[in-house]
Structure to design on (400 residues):
């Protein structure tokens, strides 16, 4: 079974036609390159036609075209010779380097260079005349010159292809970085929105349920006051978040981001919402103002306490909730414990996003997080523990 020859490129067809017509024109006006050859007259048309046919293969079968073209050029020396045949051979040599295999592209310039040197020295030894150098120059112009030009063009083409590939890879990496940055920012926004608003909405849901289920004016008024307070605070938090999103300065967090100094107010608000909460701050820099701690660590600790109190408000049974924040060496340890068991009274629905957010905040700082029920003396409690290192590399997608 014979495989069909590949279809020649249209530019190769044009080159072959122009070379063939040019050769016929030179023959028609009687312009030849040699005189007194063995094969005279129209014999020069045979190498001309074969060489033009090889031009059709200059791009698809370059190595074959160079080998056969060399033989045809040698045969052309036994005729009057045609300039068109020689020019088409130089094009085949150029195409052999440009379109051939990498090995052929390396081999052809070396081979033609050696042939040029050998022809020069050989004719000098044979003729012993300075004119022999002209033979070497002609050989170099026909063989080594096109091969060297092909090397230069091929190297330039390969470098251009490498630069295009590098540019495409850079653009792809930039797009991946952009997508990751968008995903990280959306996750941060989701955590902020949940942590800031969920506490107020949970209190509103529980107290509105109590107001609807208990037909006592005093209880209803207290519930409505709590609902109004949480509505105003939730609206303020939403405005702060909107301010962050609209801020074009590039700051990931506003200057007034929550810190550990605000834990007392947070606990007091939880007591207003009906929780029995105790707060303990221990360790250096925590017994007084919490200044000097990294801002991301303070924010994460504050949000973990805030979300833990929100979960206790929604799910904990009656009893005391304890909040402990301690600096132990080079880390901040947060522990929130609440009664675990069946709950009497209204319960707000939960989605589990709070635990996911707390775990993400801790992981971004390189800390450890665990939450779940544990046995504690006379009963079960739900305990949240988080250890936040004070010296951590700035996580990608989070403010440093």
């Amino acid at each position: 079974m014979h495989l069909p020859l590949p279809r020649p490129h249209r530019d190769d067809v044009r080159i072959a036609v122009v070379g063939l017509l040019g050769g016929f024109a030179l023959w028609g006006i009687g312009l030849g390159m040699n005189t007194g050859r063995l094969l005279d007259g129209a014999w020069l048309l045979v190498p001309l036609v074969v060489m033009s046919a090889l031009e059709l293969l200059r791009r698809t079968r370059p190595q074959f075209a160079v080998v056969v073209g060399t033989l045809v050029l040698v045969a052309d020396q036994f005729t009057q010779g045609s300039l068109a045949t020689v020019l088409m051979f130089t094009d085949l040599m150029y195409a052999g380097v440009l379109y051939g295999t990498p090995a052929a592209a390396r081999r052809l310039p070396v081979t033609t260079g050696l042939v040029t040197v050998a022809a020069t020295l050989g004719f000098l030894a044979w003729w012993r005349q300075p004119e022999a150098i002209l033979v070497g120059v002609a050989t170099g112009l026909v063989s080594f010159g096109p091969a060297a030009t092909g090397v230069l063009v091929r190297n330039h083409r390969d470098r251009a292809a490498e630069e295009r590939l590098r540019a495409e890879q850079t653009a792809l990496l930039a797009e991946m970085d952009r997508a990751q940055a968008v995903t990280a920012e959306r996750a941060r926004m989701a955590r902020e929105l949940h942590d800031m608003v969920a506490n107020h909405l949970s209190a509103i849901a529980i107290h509105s349920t109590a107001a609807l289920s208990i037909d006592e004016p005093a209880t209803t008024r207290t519930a409505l006051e709590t609902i109004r307070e949480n509505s105003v605070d939730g609206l303020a938090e939403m405005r702060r978040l909107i301010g962050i999103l609209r801020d074009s300065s590039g700051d990931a967090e506003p200057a007034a981001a929550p810190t550990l100094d605000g834990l007392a107010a947070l606990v007091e608000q939880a007591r207003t919402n009906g929780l029995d909460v105790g707060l303990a701050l221990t360790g250096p820099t925590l017994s007084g103002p919490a200044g000097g701690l990294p801002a991301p660590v303070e924010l994460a600790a504050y949000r973990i306490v805030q979300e833990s109190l929100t979960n206790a408000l929604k799910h904990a049974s009656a009893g005391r909730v304890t909040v402990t924040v301690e600096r132990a060496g080079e880390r901040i340890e947060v522990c929130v414990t609440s009664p675990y068991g069946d709950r009497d009274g209204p319960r707000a629905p939960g989605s589990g996003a709070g635990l996911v957010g707390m775990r993400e905040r801790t992981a971004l700082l390189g800390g450890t997080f665990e939450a779940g029920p544990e046995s504690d003396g006379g009963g079960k409690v739900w305990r949240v523990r988080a250890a936040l290192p004070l010296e951590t590399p700035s996580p990608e997608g989070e403010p440093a």
User: Anything to note?
Assistant: The two ends are 69 Å apart (CA to CA). Residues 10-171 form one domain.
